[in-house]
Design a protein that fits this description.
By secondary structure, the chain is mainly alpha-helical. The chain has twelve helices and five strands.
Length: 340
């Protein structure tokens, strides 16, 4: 019965303003996603229309479910729980009965899309294709990823890009491999879209051909890892990162147009708001780890966080403009690889 712990977390660490501001950001991301799909060239009209329909009909869950702040409802969930100070075995039996009743209710309501698959104190952002829903838990709506009183370039650069890149998985090669009713694996892209996508995918594969990770110094020895062997399996992630970054940036610029340019805090005037958007994005994946851990991540075929920053941004024209990266420089590729 995890609802009580979820509710305690919400009441002690989450502000209602966090949820409301998160919903506003997500709404802007969804709108930008639809606009991006309207202009995508590698999808046929039929696949494009289906993608837009899927985005519009998806369920969006951010922060926490409303019942988390409803004490009456929460009390009803635990009304049948009887705990005794001197009967441990009996307590286990009673809790098992309540848990079984709860699971039976879930089975009876398998068609319901209101259930949350994660605890709200578990920091998660994910698009779940089986249920066609995007979920962002309350734990993700906090510093250093989000602050409802923070500037828009900060929130859209951090949490906005996380929402955008995961929403892309609703319609990319991951989302395209699930039937629209969520019942089973089954491609819903048409043949022309699948064929055109191969060119987009190949662009992402080629972009990783010369990528190396390292140097990692372990026990006095230096190691370099060639990650090109994983280029094809990582192509979808690279495309989602770069495309999600662009999508969130465009959403941010629309908000800036509506609200006006933000006043920068004292002490960081050497950067522009646009540059700080990308700094906020980079901070999402910033990590400090010993070389042995980083090497192990590569050997386990985990997509390098360095690539989620440098490689993704090098394929975003808006990043080139913000930092005045010139053609031929490492952070400015001549042929960007993005979905939109």
């Amino acid at each position: 019965m995890p609802e009580a712990l979820d509710a305690i977390f919400v009441k002690q660490y989450v502000r209602m303003e966090d949820k409301k501001e998160g919903e506003k950001i997500l709404s802007k991301i969804v709108d930008q996603m639809v606009d991006s799909l309207l202009n995508v060239t590698w999808m046929t009209q039929e696949t494009r229309d289906t993608s837009i329909k899927k985005i519009k009909e998806s369920v969006y869950k951010i922060g926490f479910p409303d019942f988390m702040v409803n004490d009456t409802y929460l009390d009803s969930l635990y009304s049948l729980v009887n705990i005794s100070n001197d009967d441990y075995f009996g307590n286990v039996i009673n809790l098992n009965k309540v848990s079984r009743r709860r699971m039976n209710n879930l089975i009876k309501n398998m068609g319901s899309r209101s259930a949350w698959s994660y605890h709200v104190y578990d920091p998660q952002v994910e698009y779940i294709n089986v249920w066609q829903e995007l979920i962002a838990t309350a734990a993700i709506l906090q510093s250093p990823l989000f602050d409802y009183e923070g500037p828009d370039y900060y929130n859209f650069g951090a949490i906005g890009t996380l929402l955008a890149r995961n929403l892309i998985h609703a319609v990319d090669e991951y989302g395209g491999s699930y039937k629209l009713d969520g019942s089973n694996l089954g491609l819903w892209w048409d043949e022309d879209t699948t064929s055109r996508y191969l060119n987009v995918q190949q662009c992402a594969v080629d972009a990783q051909r010369n990528e190396r990770a390292g140097p990692y110094v372990i026990s006095g020895k230096t190691y370099w890892i060639n990650i090109s062997s994983s280029a094809e399996s990582n192509a979808a992630e690279m495309l989602a990162d770069a495309s999600g970054l662009r999508m969130s940036y465009k959403a941010y610029k629309l908000v800036e147009k509506e609200k006006g340019r933000e006043i920068l805090p004292a002490g960081i005037h050497k950067y522009t708001a646009d540059q700080l958007f990308f700094v906020a994005y980079a901070q999402v994946y910033c990590q400090s780890a010993p070389d042995v851990v980083l090497l192990a991540q590569h050997l386990l075929d985990k997509y390098p966080l360095k690539n989620k920053i440098n490689l993704a941004m090098s394929h975003v024209p808006e990043f080139h403009s913000a930092f005045k990266c010139q053609a031929g420089q490492r952070m400015h590729v001549n042929t960007p690889c993005t979905l939109f």
